[in-house]
Structure formats: structure tokens, C-alpha cells
């Protein structure tokens, strides 16, 4: 079994992208830390031939659900505090226009898009995580991408598309 | 197992693929300290630059478990720790701060004795008995393989002393470089003969 450090270096960026895309700037880093701490705890029992990406996304998914529930429980006054206005945020940063477009998606679509396009999970595995059918997961990702193309890629970025 | 075209994902989610180095470092450091607090940091490691090259330092919760020279392949040393001690291995410099500082003092002629807990679990039986004796050889002095064999309780196990020194998991801190041939020549060394000579020259100065 290889040192856990190698897992962090190889998959840390992918997990952070998924956490950012699903949870947004305020929750992503806590979810990342919780995911890797839980992964470290369970790592010695992980099968040698396990799919590490799917394993990590499964853990991240549970942490993301926890984070979403915690946010839902929080009193509204906390959410309305303008603590984010102080940060300088550029439209071209991920937590500018891209996060705004992702945040506008229904949760199911945002999750399907993130797990498929950022973690590389096949729709069958996404369905196993979120419940529902493989077709439903595929449709959620398809609808999500379609909306993102319209809301994020198309309008403002016309000529400056990267 | 990427089922999607990465360039397609990059096109759509470009800004998400840019992760600032300082963010990655901050998250990693936070993970290491959380792991330590939770008792999950079975092996912490860092590297340190010294006059005899970049050394890998690794410690369990019991103490310093590995010092590896550049020629000993740090990746292989970490893989061995993952195999023999625990796969919960993280780059986590804090646990190695004391030994890193003492090594710096040693190479600056400001320290003669290392005062850090040592975990000799990578060595067993007679080899461990040999390693336990080595710190008793004073700074600047040497003993022959024969003398060490006698001190470790097996006067005829001279060759085994050589093996114990060659496989010393924590060189410098456990000073196997102070064991030399009876004729006064240096003998072999895990870090290479030149390093052994450099350490003995340093201690003689």
C-alpha cells in the first residue's frame, strides 16, 4: 500500500474541485479537510485494487451532505451577513461567474455535473451515490451542462472564451 | 479512470482547474495537524538540507524512525515505511522540527549529542542491540566492528555488526559512522564512504 501522502498529492486537487463545484467557496475547504481526514482514517483497510477516485468521491459526497444539512440548520441571519463582500472576487475566478452559474443549478444536476466532469465517475456510480437510475444521473448531468453552457459560457464570455 | 475528456472539462470549468499553490499548501498543513490531533499521523516526514545532502526524516508517535540519505531513494524509504509501519504517512514537518534543528546544530559544531526519542522498530534482534550501543561511542571517537560486537554481547558476531550498521535506519542520530575497521580504515557506509569520512572529519575538528 502506497503512502497516504501520494493519495493527497494525486487526488487532492480533484477532490477540491468537486467540493468547490458542489458546495461553493464557504464550505469547500472544510469539506475537503473532512474528506481527507476520514480517508486517512479508513485508508489502511482500503482494498489494494480499489478505485481511489470513486472511494474519495463517496467520502466527499457524505461530507457534502453533512455540510449541506449543517447550512440548512443554521439561522438565516448568519447567511445574510455580508462577510463575503470584503473579498475581491473577479468574474473570471472560479468563485465568481462560474460558481454563480453552478449555484443556480438544482443540487442533483450540480452533483451529477461535478462527479462526472470533475471526478470522472461513470453515471452508474453517480446513481449509486445519489440514488435513482443511471439514466436519471445522465440526464441530470446533461441538463446541468446545457444550462451552464447557456448561463456561464455563452453570454458574457462570447469572444474571450478560454 | 477518467471517463470524460479532460480538455472538455477544462473548457467548461477552466477556473476550477486553477488551484493556487498556497491554497494547496494551507489545506495540506491543516490536514496534517488535524491528523496529528486525531492520532492518525502514524508516520510524519520532511526533508532537510545538510552538508551531506538532502536527508529524509521520518517519525512515528514514538520517535525518529528513519533518516535516509539521498542515495537511498527517499520514495523507496517512504514506501518501506508504508509497508512496515503504517500507510498513514503524511508530509508533516512539525514533528521533525526538533531533530532538524539538532542536525543543523550538529553540522555547525554546536551539538555533540542528539536528544530526541528514537524508534528502532525497523531494526530487530541483534541488530537493534548493536544500534542501542552506538550512542555510547562518544562524539569524535571510533570503535572497531570487533569492539562493538563485544559490547553488544556477541564478540564473534563481527560480520553481523557490519550488517547492523549498514542497515541502520537512523544514521547520524544513531552514530554508526563511528564504527570503523580495526586497521583504522573507514569501512562501508549507507550514505557512501565519502559521507562517513565527512562526518568523522567534522567530529575530529
Write the layout of secondary structure elements.
The complex is a heterodimer of chains A (about 160) and B (about 200).
Chain A: H1 4-23, H2 28-42, H3 52-73, H4 76-79, H5 94-103, H6 107-118, H7 123-130, H8 134-153
Chain B: H1 6-17, H2 21-37, E1 43-50, E2 53-59, E3 64-68, H3 74-84, E4 89-91, H4 97-107, H5 125-133, E5 143-144, H6 145-151, H7 158-166, E6 179-180, H8 193-204
Parallel strand pairs in B: 1-4, 5-6
Antiparallel strand pairs in B: 1-2, 2-3
List keywords for this structure.
heterodimer; A: 162 residues; Butyryl-CoA Dehydrogenase, subunit A, domain 3; globular; B: 205 residues; alpha/beta; Arc Repressor Mutant, subunit A; 2 domains; four-stranded mixed β-sheet; 43% helix
Descriptive report:
The complex is a heterodimer of chains A (162) and B (205). Chain A has 162 residues and is an all-alpha fold. Chain A has a single domain (4-160), classed as Butyryl-CoA Dehydrogenase, subunit A, domain 3, CATH 1.20.140. Helix content of chain A is 69%, strand content 0%. In chain A, helix 1 crosses helix 3 and helix 1 (4-23) crosses helix 5 (94-103). Residues 76-86 and 157-162 of chain A have low confidence and may be disordered. With 205 residues, chain B is an alpha/beta fold. Chain B has two domains: 20-107, Methylated DNA-protein cysteine methyltransferase domain (Double Stranded RNA Binding Domain), CATH 3.30.160; 125-204, Arc Repressor Mutant, subunit A (Orthogonal Bundle). Chain B has helices at 6-17, 21-37, 74-84, 97-107, 125-133, 145-151, 158-166, 193-204; strands at 43-50, 53-59, 64-68, 89-91, 143-144, 179-180. In chain B, a hairpin with a 4-residue loop joins strand 2 and strand 3. In chain B, helix 5 (125-133) packs across helix 7 (158-166). Classes of the chains: A mainly alpha (162), B alpha/beta (205). The A-B interface holds A 1-5, 8, 12-13, 16-17, 20-21, 29, 32-33, 36-37, 40-41, 43-44, 51, 53-54, 92-94, 96, 98, 116-118, 120-122, 145, 148-149, 153, 162 and B 1-4, 8-9, 11-19, 23-24, 27-28, 30-31, 34-35, 38, 40, 43, 45, 78-79, 81-83, 86-91.
